[in-house]
Fold:
Amino acid sequence: MSTFDIFSGGYVSVFMHSDIKNVDLGSDQYKELPEVSAFPETGTSRSSIDVPNFSSAYNRKLVGRASTPDITLKFNYIPKSEHDKLIECANNGTRVQIKIEYYTDATKKSGLAIAYSGFISSDKMTGGDEAPVGREMTFVVDGGAVAQKVFTAEEPLKPTHLNLVKEK
Structure:
């Protein structure tokens, strides 16, 4: 029996990693990007191939190669934070790895983590006199997911080492 149930998208964190070959979702090299202001939508899509079939009343369908759609990342902008490192990646055209953690509740101890490598293809400042200043970025995924894992308090992304004392 599953210990999971449906959950809302109200608890999400986004992280960045400079090593695009990383496959360890629990790596302590991930840096959290603060103030996520919109739900980052991820997924996969395939092209549809219409196959004519003149011996039938209906054509057949096939699917083509898979691709990962661009991911829109929105933040309430904090100058001199990790946001600036993403802006630098956009300006330089350098690759970066993004990890998104979708949590099942406010404890943030269980949920789904997924990482992608790619580029920040656009970055724009948003806001106004009645809105917070924000950054909206488009993350272009190069290939598919690098890693994906369901995690729980019993099986976290990385082990916690509480009360660890070195022996003398």
User: Anything to note?
Assistant: The mean pLDDT is 91. The beta strands are 12-17, 31-33, 45-51, 60-67, 71-76, 96-103, 111-128, 131-141, 147-151. The chain has one helix and nine strands. The helical segments are 82-92.
